[in-house]
Amino acid sequence: MEQRLSLVTLGTRDLDRSRAFYERLGWVRSVRAAEGVAFFQMGGMVLALWTRAELAADAGVPAEGSGFAGVALSHNVRTPAEVETVLDQAVAAGATLLRPAVDREWGGRSGHFADPDGFVWEVAWNPGFPIAADGSIRLPD
């Protein structure tokens, strides 16, 4: 198996509400003709929003469940000041602030928010993970 993550799909309680949240963040929807799902191109990968019930049914698992799912999504930024800026944008778009920006013991700065479905996003500046002009990150060896 090649080492690659191509698409992340979030199971939403209200697809229209979640789509609108990400659009308020300034994200541009792709494949607009697709019904019942929302796609957002994110550099070399894709974020998809689908209903939680349909996503669970597709995987053959129960849709019930709540609380932390053991997964956090990360949005890295180019400067320490951008951490607060992005957190503020997310809250203005309807997110819940989970943790304000703080300087971290590993030398960076980060904070967390939850989207309308409770999915946890970390916003981080990591001086060891520079971001290329196209938004990609290349990990050091």
How does this model look, in words?
This protein has about 140 residues and is α/β, with parallel strands linked by helices. It has 2 domains: about 1-60, Roll (2,3-Dihydroxybiphenyl 1,2-Dioxygenase, domain 1), CATH 3.10.180.10; about 70-130, 2,3-Dihydroxybiphenyl 1,2-Dioxygenase, domain 1 (Roll), CATH 3.10.180.10. The protein is built from 3 helices and 8 strands. The protein has a 4-stranded mixed sheet. It has a 4-stranded mixed sheet with strand order 5-8-7-6, covered by helices on one side. Strand 2 and strand 3 form a beta hairpin. The longest helix is centred in the middle third of the chain and has 14 residues, at about 80-95.
Based on the model shown, name its key terms.
2 domains, 4-stranded mixed sheet, 2,3-Dihydroxybiphenyl 1,2-Dioxygenase, domain 1, 141 residues, alpha/beta, globular
Brief rundown of the structure:
The protein has 141 residues and is α/β, with parallel strands linked by helices.
